[in-house]
Amino acid sequence: xxxLHRDNTLPDWASIPLPDAWPDRLDLRRPxxxxxxxxxxxxxxxxxxxxxxxxxxxxxxxxxxxxEFHNLPNGNYSRRFTRGYITGFDRVMLGEISKSHREIAVRxxxxxxxxxxxxxxxGCGGGGLAGAMQQAGIAEVWGLDPxxxxxxxxxxxxxxxxxxxxxxxxxxxADNTFAAIxxxxxxxxxxxxxxxxxxxxxxxxxxxxxxxxxxxxSPLQLRRSPLALWRDYGWRGLYFHAxxxxxxxxxxxxxxxQDLPALFARHGFELLRNDxxxxxxxxxxxxxx
Length: 289
Ligand SMILES: C[S@@+](CC[C@H](N)C(=O)[O-])C[C@H]1O[C@@H](n2cnc3c(N)ncnc32)[C@H](O)[C@@H]1O
Prior knowledge:
By secondary structure, the protein is α/β, with parallel strands linked by helices. It has eleven helices and seven strands. Helix 3 runs parallel beside helix 5.
């Protein structure tokens, strides 16, 4: 199988040397450095992400990405925090992320055309969903992410998946390449103008009839009252309410305001599933044939 990407030779993310970012240079035995870190992690300050001058592909990373999402010091751009983020994200989400990864992988692998074809996980982070799809038996799995630090972990953890640096709105793949695309906790991190471009790009690189599987934070934990969440979801409802209020998510409100059936229809997708619970929303769409 030959999947076409505009870069003929892709870097070997597992072994490429990556420069230190500012959190990597801190000495956590020094109270001053520890406090610098704690201010960011506690959400007391959010400063723009600083990319080291020698970081591979730094010129391709759009400005809106260079923010401290989830209160991570320097966002997804340090060696020190990306490994912890990969495992910590699922723990903080009480295992719901790895559960969704497994469910999406099994669901897509059950489609013969997808199982035998190529799938792209957009915004792959540490590669958990891409890896789950490869383990579920999908023939060719790709992961795409702008952060070299996350790509490095992903490539080391999942050597049989191919990882490429890039963004959802400009993936670099040829038209009609993929039988399916997945995006888990990606779309709510993209501002509306780029969200439209991302869906247009997904429609371009998906084959006719191809599937788009999405999981995102649910609006319920932000929009419903703590009392209603307690009544319907118990302590988990209150936990996800507090979490949604604590972490820095600059575009989450804009995402929740989207008319999703209209958004998907504008880009030629039929929405097959739109399930909203706490803490996740799962969507499945099919590109018109
Ligand atoms: C919350 S993490 C989710 C990671 C992974 N999908 C998972 O399920 O664990 C969001 C990821 O999207 C990536 N990202 C942010 N904006 C992006 C964009 N425009 N295109 C592609 N990836 C993006 C981030 O670097 C990060 O790895």
